[in-house]
Design brief:
By secondary structure, this protein is an alpha+beta fold. Helix content is 21%, strand content 22%. The longest helix has 30 residues. The termini are far apart.
């Protein structure tokens, strides 16, 4: 997998070492000349492309070298499938990404074709919110740094003071806030300063009589099990008595 290819770039904060790539049972062999500008996104072990991008003219053409059914490949069921399709669909908006992380220094670029009033200022608008983000001329358009103008996630509208043209943009939370890694003891102590952190050890647990994670099997479960066995034994004795009386008669 070509990690620097725009289609798979930034799909994951960090690609796991044991990541499971798609597996195929059937495939087509793809050949293209130099004018097609082939770029392999995912490749088979023999180097032939599994998922490739071609730019023979305007736009981009993506080809998968395997049928998109589960009997031929598990690609449609993999966690790559939906994100990759999404990135394919927005490739023609590379200069104007549909979403920005809060605090990001990456701008939203708006073409001069969508800027009828070139001297008018762009506003970032949401319910009960109106801000003027930093904006600079860039090439044939304007770069607008919306990630540094708002602090709440949600959908915003970029709109000029004059004119009816508008651009929708989504502001997302920083993905690093969703990392589930455990913090080290020193990191916790540092974040809680000037308060002092007291770490509980096994002596504290035993002194206060708290339950530990390695406590033996709970006694109440044993009591419930004994009660069920007694109930089953009682039922068996009652049935045996009724069957004995029935045989004597």
């Amino acid at each position: 997998m070509q990690e620097n290819q725009p289609v798979v770039q930034d799909l994951f904060e960090k690609i796991p070492e044991n990541i499971q790539l798609p597996v195929t049972k059937r495939r087509f062999f793809i050949e293209a000349d130099l004018t097609a500008n082939q770029q392999s996104i995912m490749s088979f072990r023999d180097g032939s492309p599994f998922l490739a991008q071609y730019t023979p003219g305007k736009g981009r053409l993506f080809i998968v070298a395997a049928p998109l059914n589960v009997s031929s490949s598990n690609f449609p069921l993999s966690y790559f499938f939906v994100p990759v399709l999404y990135k394919m669909a927005v490739q023609n908006q590379e200069q104007n990404p549909p979403s920005i992380d809060i605090g990001s220094s990456n701008p939203v670029w708006i073409s001069a074709a969508n800027n009828a009033h070139k001297r008018s200022v762009w506003h970032l608008i949401a319910p009960s919110f109106d801000a003027v983000p930093v904006q600079n001329p860039s090439g044939t358009g304007t770069s607008i740094f919306v990630g540094q103008a708002a602090t709440k996630t949600g959908f915003y509208v970029l709109k000029q003071e004059e004119g009816a043209d508008s651009v929708w943009i989504a502001l997302n939370a920083d993905r690093r806030e969703s990392l589930l890694d455990y913090a080290s003891g020193s990191a916790i102590e540092q974040s809680l300063k000037p308060f002092k952190v007291h770490w509980i050890d096994e002596k504290d647990i035993s002194r206060h009589g708290w339950k530990t994670s390695d406590q033996p099997f709970p006694l109440w479960k044993i009591a419930v099990l004994i009660a069920l066995l007694c109930l089953a034994l009682e039922t068996w004795l009652l049935l045996s008595g009724h069957l004995g009386k029935a045989v004597k008669k």
